[in-house]
Every structure is written in C-alpha cells, then in structure tokens.
Amino acid sequence: MSHSSHTKVVVDTDIGTDPDDGLALAYLAMHPACDLLGVTIVTGDVQQRAAVAEILLRACDRSDVPIHCGRREPLLKGAGQPLVQQYDCIKHMTHIQGRPENAAVDFLQRTIRNHPGEVVLLTIGPLSNAGLLFALDPELPSLCKEVVSMCGKYFGPEKHQKEWNILVDETAAGIVLKTQRPRHRFVGLDVTRPCTLQAHDAEKRLFQELGELGGLMKSLGDWWLKKKDRFTFHDPLAAAIIFQPDLCEWVTGRMVVDPSNGATSFEANAGTDLVACDVNPEAFFTNYFEVVKSTSPKETFDRMRAQVSSQVSS
C-alpha cells in the first residue's frame, strides 16, 4: 500500500549471481520508508533470476511485490552473464515458472509515467533494461524522482577503470549515459569496497541473527563465501543512499564510459551526475542491520512502517 511518507522504488537487478543483489533486495523489501513497486530482472537466464527474487521476497513476507523478466542478452557489445549460481540453492522450492519475458521495460515505463516525479529507479545490475527504456522513451529519466546506479569505478590509481555491471552490456551503458538525466547518482566499486564483512562476521551478523531470512542468505551465499571469504555490500549501499544519502560524500560532474574498452572515468564539474567519492562503512552497516535484523521480518516491517507513519502524522 502506498503512503505519502514512503519513497517509491523500482529496482532492476541481476540477482542470482553475486550475493549483494539479494542483500539489497531484502533491505528494500523491509525498509519502513520504501514503497517497493516492483523488481525487474536483467541478463542471462532471467527466469532463474526471477525465481531467486521470488523466494527471497517470500522470506521477507513480501510476495506482494511484482517481478518482471527483462532482457537476456547485451544490446550489442558486452560480456553477458549467463550463469545463475544461486538458482541451484532454490530450484527445489515452489516458484513460478515461465514468466513472460521482455516485460520489464514496459513495466518500468508504465510505473514511472503513472507516478511522475515520485519513483526512484535503482539499477544494481547491467544496464540492458535501462538502456532499452531510455532509448525507447528518452523523456523518462526526467520523470523519475532520481536514478541511482551501482556501476563503474572512478577514483582509483588508474585513469580508466573497469567494473562488471558496465562490461556486461557496454552498449546499454553508453545509451544510458547519452540520455539526458537530470538527477543520477552513481555508487562505484571503489567506494563500495570498504562496506565488506569477512566470512566470520557474515556468519554471525547475517546468517545466525536473521532467522529464516538469514538461513536463506546462507544458502544463497555459501558458494560465494567459499570462493571469496567475504561479502561486499556493493548493491546494498546503493539502495541505502536512496534513504540516507549522507552515508556517502558526493562530487558533481559527468560519468563517462570509454566505448573502446568499457572503462569508466569521472569528469569533475562537467555535468549533473552525482558520484560517490567516500563512504562511512560503520554508519552504513548500522543502517543496514537496523532495517533487516529480525527473526520475524513481517512483524518488524509492520512495526517500522507504523513508526514512520506516526512520525509523519505528528
């Protein structure tokens, strides 16, 4: 149910590979100020990715949130991302199969146009759906309250740097950046990296203390921890700054993608893009776990929503 105190959000995600997409979706699903209007799926086996999103939303008691499959392949140039490793963890669970495909762009367009100036479009995967959306409807970014993207890398020692969400579909990224966007925040890889939990901290803070949701997170993320021995909260940070932008420091300029190799760079004072240049990891983790930490997601969600509503009415 929509409420004037809540921020309307649609999230475009490649959930099902890295664990941070699921961590971000759980945060949005349980945030007391988030009116999560829908989830769109991008890249690779979108049916499997949608199933992972469905199971995770169910664990948050948010089966009311619609899920729409988007584009499987890069628009033209890009690495693609066919593997959905997390699907093996949930394929035995009951879930919808055979969702309509290529429905994401239409859903995003209708939703944003039905709520002009109110919807935050959050992209935490490759930009295939967003690129198609902006190409078909170049006015749409101006109808968003804000566009927020976890992509790129800007402030490391190298002049030009590469990041996976850009490389998976370089053409789509180019289309997004060539479309006029009045307000677009970028959270890059170099800023998200400090928001990392090592394996032993993830075991305690995520898996043991989050009840059913923690058990699902453990199942979905175990393969990643064995490979990396850590969780980095790239996408959850992008989700969190929608509600608390001061978790990061920001500089204004223009995000640029090199068409020859997909590398990103930042040109200061050259545009209206807002790019995160620093983060407070401690404040981020306090914010994140304040939202999701519960053995009963539904009760916590209802309680926190009531608190938000009472604060607004007073």
UniProtKB/TrEMBL annotation:
Pfam families recorded: IU_nuc_hydro
Gene3D superfamilies: Ribonucleoside hydrolase-like (3.90.245.10)
Domain Inosine/uridine-preferring nucleoside hydrolase: 9-285
Record flagged with keyword Transmembrane helix: no
Gene Ontology CC, one term: cytosol
Similarity field: Belongs to the IUNH family.
Keyword Hydrolase: yes
Family matches, as InterPro entries: Inosine/uridine_hydrolase_dom (IPR001910), IUNH (IPR023186), Ribo_hydro-like (IPR036452)
Keywords noted in UniProt: Glycosidase, Hydrolase
Gene Ontology biological process terms in this record: purine nucleoside catabolic process
Lineage top rank: taxon: Eukaryota
Organism in which the protein naturally occurs: Neoarthrinium moseri
GO terms assigned for molecular function: purine nucleosidase activity
Protein's UniProt name: Inosine/uridine-preferring nucleoside hydrolase domain-containing protein
Taxonomic path: Eukaryota, Fungi, Dikarya, Ascomycota, Pezizomycotina
